[in-house]
Design goal:
Length: 1154
């Protein structure tokens, strides 16, 4: 049932492989042929898989010993294997040199037999005493501990016998003996591939059968069976096996029995032949043993009568029974070695034989009591030693050679060959079928593609002279060819001679090239050629930069194509820009069209004929040569071309400054004036020389251009570096300011980064430009010193194998210019070491300033220290940076070269940090002013009170000036208060602060003085139309201890007034007009000063609104004003004091730049 189900399953699988692919192909819209091809391919792969699987299994069976022989082999094992191979080579060489080669292959003329058995069974003795002769010298034999060491060769006239070591049969040392045995099989299969072995003689000692236990005998039989199975696997055949029982003289009575036989009988065999290859070994052994025992019983009486001794007669009489005693154990051995089982193919037991090669030792008896009785009657017990050979000669000389060709293949081999034939035939049939299917499929594919191309090609319009439409037409044709090309290249199978698709592809490419070059490109080339003829000195650089690179690169592409470059190599070369060719005026720009034309041109180069390309190249070269010979044109268009590439960005302030604000008219370094741009410039010059017939055509122009180019290169960088400090104006906002402050304290600050970048970008000037600008010299020197400082710092930190990184290595040669030649590589000039030390101090100071400037308190503390410490011995970060910078300048002042630009850049990070520190410290002082001064007078409006709070004893302003602001404010007798300066910077105090402090201080001092003022009263006037006249004017000054009065009755009156701001009181002015008394009162500590100020011009005019209570009366009497006049002396100090009254303090005392 299982076999039937398996057959049904295989049939279903085959039907699936045959029917499903065509059906699926039809459903997906493909042809039935494609499905049939898939079916044929699947079946072919399936058969090929089974065939390979079978061959692989056979290969593994043939080579299974290889791995085992070598795996885990020790030195001794390898030596033994080498000895074994050497013995085989010697023996085979001896055979090949013998006369056997006349009869054929010496290895196959005689049959080969192997003798196998446990050590000590007498294999070698039986072969040696068999009585066979040989005319061939025997190879040397090597004996082991218990007999043959590995294998002995016996070259007899009848056969070649291989006497194997007993270790091979029983594997006493499992690992070593097994490897030797497998190595032996490998040699056997190697030298006798056609007919490895004709028979096997298995020996078992009668002593083992008589004395061994059944388990031991069965174990020995199983080991022999394993060796037989391995032999059958290697040989692939069932060969005859002869079971030879040796040392039968140890069976009681065997020697006496044989001695009575005729000598001619000794050479015969004692045993039987199995004529049925399918006969079970156990059954054969039983029947054979029974026959032999029966014959022995028939002969014993006849043999016994010929013996004289009674004991000898008894042994002969008992011999058949003694002989029968080994039957059961021999059967046990045979069952284990030869019986059939369901797992292994049974070996062919050809015969059972008994022998004795020599007589020695004590025979064993089945009847021990009878043996003792016979011994007591004169039996010796120990037989006499003799070398008589019994029943061996004919076994090796007749029986074995006669059976040479009776071996048959194993069932496994037969089934394998049958499967191989079936699969080979099926594969051949399927291959024929597949070939037919493939031919049909190829024809179908060719026909389908031809029809498809005819249909699509008919839809491609002709070129009309319109750029966009023509490009689209050519693109459609190109994609059609690409599609055909891809299909042809993607075909997994050959076309089998049906190359219509390939021919169609070639024809389409010819048509495409004719259209692209002959119709499309020729029109635009002609227009551009006419433009080249009209080029003059007034032609713009942009126009030249569009035309000449286009010509150059097209010429070089064609040259590369003519030299055999493939499409990938062409695509890797510099590509021409078709914008200048197709759109010379630049008013219309369609990137997709330009990309299409570039792709179309590359395919045109790949597909065009050499003749067509040669004509195009000659035309382009003539126009290029004409343009280069034009004396009015220079090569400066190369710079314009480089700047317009777009691949290299311009160098701007944003590369160094992190600010987001953009400055107007900001300079930049164009792409052509960078190292990458310079590579592009020189690359274009190289391309130009390659495109021309001779580079000498532009030699003079190139020299002139390079001189101009290098000068413009240097000027561009000088202009950018000069403007660079303004980059700090791009920094806006708190985050950008903090980030910039942090960077300024590192070696990656914008200024050092610019100097490093300039040193790199300008590095070629000293070696490649004859007159290098002198202003570059300190930049190179600084970079060399900076890199050495970095090197020394890393070494101090214990970094092993320090090397100057990157671009710094390019400037170490500048060290020689700074301090002269160096002795050894590990020595550094003193000037350089000093410069590096100065730079490190400068960098250390900048780092400290950066850290302090991040907080107002830190900036205030740093600024306070810098403003108060000794300029020479001071150790603040500011002084450290200043000293480091100054020392660095001194070290580098070895050449009198223009250094103004370098000094500006070198001091740039310090100036930025110091300015920010001063501004931040100013903000800190502003906060202190707000907290200690402005908060002190909140709610106070009296000037005298304010003055006392701020400028009196312990006043807030006095504490501020003498405390937090003291390091930053100075005072001189003439100049008064001023802001101190350090390194060209001061705290940005406002002028209002110094004015306020000056006035407040003066005001406080004036309050303690006593002023004497002489006042002379003059007549009081009134407006003419008034109906009344003033008649008395009284001035009264109150003080702490007295009241001073001046009365004027319209004639002169004079009085001296003593007044002190500290003790002054109210001032009352009384005017008598008619019957009215008018009163004007000045109050407060400064009342008298206010009165003097009102009369500072000698008179004061009062309006009737100044007397609200009497206003109506005055108006009725026609009074509009009353003019009071006093002549006063000694008032200037008071007026000056009034002007210097501090009053309310300013809210903003520090102005800083945001």
């Amino acid at each position: 049932m299982r076999t039937f189900l398996k057959a049904v399953l295989i049939l279903c699988l085959l039907m699936t492989l045959i029917l499903v692919p065509p059906v699926v192909a039809m459903l997906l819209g493909y042809s039935v042929w494609s499905g049939a091809m898939v079916s044929a391919g699947a079946l072919g792969l399936l058969l090929f898989f089974f065939l390979m699987r079978f061959l692989w299994s056979r290969y593994r069976e043939r080579k299974f010993v290889n791995g085992l022989v070598s795996k885990g082999a020790s030195a001794e094992d390898k030596a033994i294997a080498s000895e074994q191979r050497k013995q085989w080579k010697m023996s085979v060489a001896e055979l090949k040199k013998s006369h056997l080669r006349v009869k054929g292959d010496p290895l196959y003329v005689l049959p080969w037999y192997m003798v196998m058995g446990e050590s000590g069974t007498g294999k070698s003795t039986a072969i040696e005493n068999s009585g066979l002769v040989t005319n061939l010298a025997q190879p040397p034999r090597v004996s082991g501990v218990s007999g043959t060491r590995n294998c002995e060769w016996w070259f007899f006239n009848e056969a070649i016998v291989l006497d194997t070591a007993g270790r091979y049969a029983t594997h006493q040392d499992e690992s070593q003996d097994k490897r030797e045995w497998h190595s032996f099989l490998k040699q056997l299969a190697r030298y006798r591939k056609k007919e490895p072995l004709n028979g096997l003689v298995v020996t078992v000692s009668a002593k083992t059968l008589l004395t061994g236990t059944r388990d031991e005998i069965e174990e020995e039989g199983r080991k022999i069976r394993d060796r037989i199975n391995e032999l059958m696997k290697v040989i692939g055949a069932r060969f005859p096996i002869y079971l030879l029982v040796t040392k039968c003289d140890l069976i009681q009575g065997m020697t006496e029995f044989c001695e009575q036989l005729p000598d001619a009988v000794y050479e015969q065999v004692f045993g039987s032949i199995n004529g049925d290859m399918q006969c079970d070994a156990s059954f054969y052994l039983s029947s054979s043993f029974a026959q032999v025992t029966k014959k022995l019983r028939n002969y014993r009486l006849q043999v016994a009568r010929s013996l004289g001794a009674e004991s000898a007669q008894a042994r002969v009489l008992f011999f058949p029974e003694e002989f029968q005693g080994i039957e059961s154990r021999l059967k046990t051995f045979a069952d284990a070695a030869f019986s059939s089982n369901v797992y292994q193919e049974p070996p062919f037991l050809r015969g059972l034989f008994f022998s004795s090669a020599r007589q020695s030792g004590h025979p064993f008896s089945k009847f021990p009591e009878a043996a003792r009785l016979l011994k007591g009657k004169g039996g010796d017990g120990e037989q006499d030693a003799a070398d008589t050979s019994y029943f061996l000669h004919d076994l090796f000389s007749k029986i074995l050679p006669t059976d040479r060709n009776i071996h048959v293949p194993t069932r496994r081999l037969i089934e394998g060959k049958r499967r191989l034939k079936v699969m080979a035939f099926s594969s051949l049939a399927l291959a024929s079928l597949t070939l037919g299917v493939l031919l049909s499929y190829s024809f179908s594919q060719n026909l389908s593609m031809v029809r498809e191309v005819q249909r699509e090609y008919a839809m491609v319009p002709s070129l009309r002279g319109e750029l966009a439409e023509d490009v689209d037409t050519l693109e459609r044709l190109r994609l059609l060819i690409r599609n055909v090309e891809e299909k042809n290249e993607s075909r997994l199978l050959p076309d089998f001679g049906l190359d219509h698709c390939s021919a169609l592809e070639r024809d389409l490419k010819v048509r495409y090239c004719d259209r692209f070059q002959g119709v499309f490109l020729a029109f635009y080339d002609t227009k551009m050629g006419d433009a080249v003829v009209n080029f003059s000195g007034e032609t713009s650089e942009g126009e030249l930069a569009g035309v000449f690179p286009h010509y150059i690169r097209r010429i070089n592409l064609i040259a590369a194509r003519n030299q055999g470059a493939d499409p990938e190599a062409l695509n890797a070369l510099p590509q021409p820009d078709f914008k200048s060719l197709l759109i010379p005026d630049g008013h219309w720009d369609n990137p997709s069209v330009l990309e299409s034309v570039s792709a179309q041109y590359l395919d045109y180069l790949a597909w065009a004929s050499p003749k067509m390309l040669a004509g195009e190249k000659a035309m382009l070269a003539s126009w290029l040569s004409y343009g280069m010979k034009n004396e009015e044109l220079s090569l400066s268009w190369v710079v314009t071309w480089c700047n317009g590439l777009g691949g290299i960005p311009s160098l701007t302030l944003a590369e160094f400054w992190e600010g987001s604000h953009h400055l107007s008219d900001e300079p930049f370094v164009g792409p052509a004036f960078t190292l990458k741009g310079r590579e592009q410039v020189f690359g274009m010059l190289t391309e130009l020389e390659q495109a021309l017939e001779s580079p000498l055509e532009i030699a003079q122009k190139k020299s002139t251009f390079l001189a101009w180019y290098h000068e413009a290169y240097a000027q561009s960088w000088h202009r950018f570096a000069t403007y660079f400090p303004k980059g700090q104006e791009t920094v806006t906002g708190k985050e950008e300011s903090i980030s910039t402050l942090v960077r300024m304290g590192t070696q990656d600050n914008p200024y050092f980064a610019l100097l490093s970048e300039m040193a790199l970008e300008l590095s070629f000037f000293p070696s490649e430009v004859e007159e290098s600008p002198l202003w570059m010299e300190p930049i190179f020197e600084f970079e060399a010193i900076r890199q050495h400082a970095l090197l020394s710092t890393q070494k101090k930190k214990g970094v092993p194998n320090v090397r100057v990184p990157g671009k710094g290595a390019k400037f170490l040669y500048r060290i020689k210019k700074v301090a002269g030649p160096v002795g050894k590589e590990d020595q550094v000039p003193e000037a350089v070491a000093a410069g590096a030390d100065a730079f490190n101090r400068y960098a250390e100071g900048l780092s400290g300033m950066s850290t302090a400037a991040l907080s107002p308190a830190g900036a205030f503390a740093l600024a306070g220290t810098a403003f108060t410490e000794d300029p020479v011995s001071g150790g603040s970060a500011v002084r450290t940076a200043m000293h480091g910078e100054e020392s660095l300048k001194i070290v580098m002042e070895t050449h009198r070269t223009p250094r103004a630009l370098f000094r500006t850049l070198l001091r740039g990070p310090f100036d930025y940090l110091w300015a920010d520190t001063c501004n931040t410290a100013g903000r800190y002082l502003q906060d202190v002013w707000d907290e200690t001064v402005l908060s002190e007078i909140q709610g106070v409006y009296n000037k005298k009170s304010i003055s006392g709070l701020l400028f009196g004893k312990g006043g807030a302003v006095k504490r501020f000036v003498a405390g937090p602001a003291k390091p930053f404010i100075g005072k001189k007798s003439k100049k008064g208060y001023y802001a101190k300066e350090v390194a060209g910077r001061s705290i940005p105090f406002t002028d209002s602060l110094f004015t306020y402090v000056t006035r407040g201080t003066y005001s406080v001092k004036s309050e303690k003085a006593v002023f004497k003022v002489t006042i002379e009263g003059l007549p009081t006037d009134i407006n003419p139309e008034a109906t009344i006249q003033p008649h008395i004017t009284t001035l009264e000054l109150e003080s702490v201890d007295k009241t001073q009065v001046l009365t004027n009755r319209n004639y002169r009156a004079q009085e001296v007034f003593d007044w002190s701001p500290k003790e002054g009181g109210a001032v009352t002015l009384t005017i008598g007009v008619g019957d009215l008394v008018l009163e004007k009162k000045y109050i407060g500590g400064w009342a008298f000063a206010k009165f003097i100020k009102d009369f500072s011009n000698g008179r004061h005019e009062f309006r009737i609104r100044d007397f609200p209570e009497e206003r109506a009366s005055l108006k009725r009497k026609g009074v509009r004003y009353i003019r009071v006049k006093y002549k006063m002396t000694g008032t200037k100090p008071i007026l000056r004091m009034m002007n210097n009254v501090a009053g309310k303090p300013p809210e903003v005392i520090v102005a800083w730049l945001d």
